[in-house]
Amino acid sequence: MVKQNKKYGFTLAECLIAMSIIGILLAIVLPSVILKTQEKKDAAMYDKAYATMTKVVAELVNDEDLYPENKEDDDSNGLANTVAINVKGKNYSGDTKFCELFASRLKILKKGNDGDANSEYGCKKALTIAEGGNFTTIDGIVWSLPIGDMKDGGIIAFDIKTVSETKSCWEYADTNDCSGGKKANKFPFKVTKNGTITRAQKSETK
Predict the structure, then answer these.
(1) Which are the contacts of 56, defined by CB distance < 8 A and separation ≥ 6?
(2) What pTM was estimated for this model as a whole?
(3) pLDDT tens digits, residue range 76-108?
(4) What does the alpha-carbon distance between residue 114 and residue 132 come to, in Å, rounded to a whole number?
(5) Which of 43, 80, 85, 131 has CB atoms 3.0–4.6 Å from 151's, for a disulfide?
């Protein structure tokens, strides 16, 4: 007598049930995995933007060729010294001096939304983050820089641009305008003429 080998396998119904269970598990797990990945990306982008800001400000304020000491007017020392200087054939002076010198240290992808009539770095007027900032760097960070004599300091703001517009909100030193579980992606900082950087209060950004 010849013995028949029995073949074992899954029925179509069993396969469909297994696939349904896997789908349910993925639907539960994936959102939290994506959220954690996004949060890590946000944190890394914030750290990069903050490090860039502190590095560039320190380089500028400590460069006596760019900001020479003004012995006649102490209020115009440090970043408040708007006297004209020339770097590699380009002049920097006046209210846009800080903005343009800051921008010259970065790799610019595009200027803000203020047309071709503006300066090389989009520093002819103070554009807000909402208007596209003064410029966007190649890493996707949107920068808004102070335009003025810097005697009373100014506000540097950056938008890390890693979250969707529906989750876009500001975080200040004293409060934030985030709600409904939103994560901040816009951060303003106060920089003094001496190069000190602190988180900006909401009232200081008005």
Answers:
(1) 102, 105, 106
(2) 0.78
(3) 899 999 999 999 899 999 989 999 999 999 988
(4) 9
(5) 80
